[in-house]
Design a protein that fits this description.
Chain A is of the alpha/beta class. Chain A has helices spanning about 35-50, 70-80, 95-110, 125-135, 190-195, 235-245; strands at about 1-5, 10, 35, 55-65, 80-85, 110-115, 140-150, 150-160, 160-170, 175, 200, 215-220, 230. Classes of the chains: A alpha/beta, B alpha/beta. At the A-B interface, helix 3, helix 4, strand 7, strand 8 and strand 9 of A face helix 2, helix 3, strand 5, strand 7 and strand 8 of B.
Chain lengths: ~250, ~325
């Protein structure tokens, strides 16, 4: 079984993010970048399936500028077998990303595609579902447990109403939630080995995909700040203020 | 703008989580919106009929008895096309995130997730939405004639009562794919108000130790206020609280009248889900905890001492 995993380059989740001087984007000076945490979880799951003898090959794919090679090298160091960079400097919206991933999927013909439920830059949570629609495949979003058996996937999903379990035949698109697993630390031997693993670079045109971005970010601003309020000395004062000042109880 | 609202259902019953999407439609397209509710033998449809929608379409079919995106998406796409909808809209929840992005994929439509504002300028739609874990607000321009949107519940509030809408039974399209199967759902309920709808939310963090302690202190205080219970990711990950109680970037977004954070440090990811609450109270032993920077009322104290005191006080004075 071959597994395809998508990997997006995003700001480190613990980096401080602020608008740039013109308010058109974030300030990217010296910004630490990382693999999207949800993609790291998807990748970890794929590698575990390979270690368990359920998968034979794990292929990582990223769409972005040449610098996304860095995140693909991390994916290779974690344990992916090879990587594909679809190189473009264009800013793409989710349907465009989904179309490119669909073309990569058709070329690679994996049995399973794993990816993050959302990229933590724009927090859109769209690409996996769009990809499943384009490819006409079953989908399981927000996965917190995946069991692969007899050509089908049984997936526990984190929904607002609790843990839902669904089952579907493979191939399918599964998107990872935080509790699916704890990604491993990359060992030094992995980093060394990753240098000799194949990383192919292609373009959207090579895949025959023409993209048209229809959703564009035009302005970035800080949300209205909340002021720190009062310190209260005990629960009596707290209850009195909630009643008489805030009037919420 | 012709709007199609997709009602949230669990396949058997309409959920009140649909209401903010209806409030959105009343504000942005008061004359021309239709509500679509999908399931099997659907109950609670009358919840949708008093808000001035042109019609409430119900699609009932045994294959739609559980809310699987693979099955629901072609139904939504079919009626969106039949009605010539310019916008397909639902309140942001895991149900709508799962379903509407698939609909956008089927229709090759652009999509905006979790919007808090929408205007039109020079013939283009311009929306605002939180980005980077709600650290920033982004403004987005959309090109094209139709768009799919999820709307952030707390930003749109509740709809106004308006004229009655006719309920029309509509056919399910013939080709519903049935590859995905629904097996089970665990959790939920518990008799407390829904976290995303509640007027009061009491949340607890990692120091609550175990499920019994969490229930006793956090559950007890929530019950004294008739509120819902929330949790941090650290509390959920340590097995202290169930998943569906998580508030934050990767959990639920809440904006109650009163949010009480008990032993919650106030990470950006947690704040992303609750900082629009009207009044925030923080109880924490660390006077430097970041939660105090957003709290209207802060009490530096040990939860094990003050939460029982507070709970008793509220019970005795009948809040
Ligand atoms: C990609 C990503 C997504 C995430 N999404 C979320 C999310 O959606 N929601 C979320 O909550 N987190 C999320 N997190 C995790 C987040 O970064 C924090 O780790 C988490 O919120 C911390 O939880 P906590 O406040 O319970 O624990 P801690 O950080 O351990 O804080 C406990 C607090 O309790 C106080 N305390 C200790 N003992 C007592 C006592 N006896 N009485 C009173 N106070 C006491 C301490 O002073 C401290 O401030 C995410 C992280 C990542 C990387
Ligand atoms: N530029 C990209 N390159 C590779 N994968 C991507 C890219 N953008 C989005 N994805 C994938 O799609 C998932 C959902 O992203 P989103 O819908 O943008 O929140 C991410 O977790 C990634 O796996």
């Amino acid at each position: 079984m071959k597994i395809l995993v998508s990997v997006k380059r995003v700001p480190d989740p613990y980096a401080k993010i602020s608008p740039n001087a013109t308010g058109t984007d974030i300030n990217r000076d010296g910004l630490q970048m990382a693999v999207n945490p949800f993609d790291e979880i998807a990748l970890e799951e794929a590698i575990r399936l390979k270690e368990a003898g359920k998968a034979t090959e794990v292929v990582a794919v990223s769409i972005g500028g040449a610098e996304s090679q860095e995140q693909l090298r991390t994916a290779l160091a974690m344990g992916a077998d090879r990587a594909i960079l679809v190189q473009t400097d264009e800013t793409l919206d989710a349907p465009s990303v989904a179309k490119i991933l669909a073309a990569v999927y058709r070329r690679e013909q994996p049995h399973l595609m794993l990816m993050g439920k959302q990229a933590i830059d724009m927090d859109e949570n769209q690409v996996g579902q769009m990809l499943a629609a384009i490819l006409d495949l079953p989908q399981a979003t927000f996965a917190s447990k995946i069991t692969i058996e007899n050509g089908s996937a049984t997936v526990e999903r984190e929904t607002d109403n609790g843990i839902e379990t669904i089952r579907m035949p493979l191939p399918a698109i599964i998107t990872a939630d935080l509790r699916l697993n704890e990604p491993r630390y990359v060992a030094l031997t992995g980093i060394v080995r990753a240098r000799s693993k194949p990383l192919e670079t292609i373009t959207p045109a090579d895949l025959g995909v023409q993209t048209r971005t229809r959703v564009r970010l035009t302005q970035v601003e800080a949300p209205p700040a909340r002021k720190a309020g009062k310190r209260v000395s005990d629960v009596h004062e707290l209850v009195r203020l909630l009643r008489e000042e805030a009037r919420v109880i | 703008m012709k709007v199609l609202i997709v009602a949230e259902t669990d396949g058997g019953r309409v959920s009140e989580k649909t209401l903010p999407a209806i409030a959105f439609a009343q504000q942005k397209s008061p004359e021309t919106f239709t509500i679509l509710a999908i399931g099997d033998n659907l109950q609670g449809v009358e919840m949708l009929t008093g808000y001035g929608a042109q019609a409430v379409l119900t699609v009932n079919h045994p294959a739609l008895a559980k809310p699987l995106a693979e099955r629901y998406a072609p139904v939504v796409a079919h009626y969106a096309q039949q009605l010539g909808a310019d916008a397909i809209v639902a309140t942001t929840t895991t149900f709508s995130r799962d379903l509407l992005a698939r609909v956008a994929g089927l229709l090759d439509a652009p999509m905006l997730s979790d919007i808090t504002a929408l205007e039109s300028a020079n013939g283009k739609l311009v929306a605002k939405r939180p980005i980077y874990s709600a650290n920033l607000i982004g403004t987005f321009e959309v090109e094209g004639s139709h768009v799919v949107m999820t709307v952030r519940g707390p930003a749109w509030g509740k709809p106004e009562p308006k004229g009655a809408s006719p309920v029309q039974n509509a056919e399910a399209p013939a080709d519903i794919p049935t590859r995905s199967e629904w097996l089970s759902l665990q959790g939920g309920g518990g008799g407390r108000p829904d976290l995303t709808q509640a007027r009061v939310v009491v949340s607890g963090g990692r120091p609550l130790k175990d499920p019994e302690t969490f229930e006793k202190y956090i559950g007890g205080l929530a019950d004294a206020l008739g509120g819902a219970v929330g949790a941090t990711r650290a509390a959920v990950d340590s097995g202290i609280a169930p998943n569906e109680l998580q508030v934050g970037q990767t959990g639920k977004t809440v904006a109650p009248e009163l949010y009480i954070a008990v032993a919650v440090s106030g990470s950006v990811q947690h704040l992303a889900g609750m900082k629009d609450s009207k009044v925030i109270v923080a109880i924490n032993t660390d006077p430097e905890a970041p939660i105090f920077q957003v709290a209207d009322y802060g009490l530096v104290a040990d939860l094990y001492q003050v939460v029982p005191e507070l709970t008793e006080l509220l019970k005795n004075s009948g809040s």
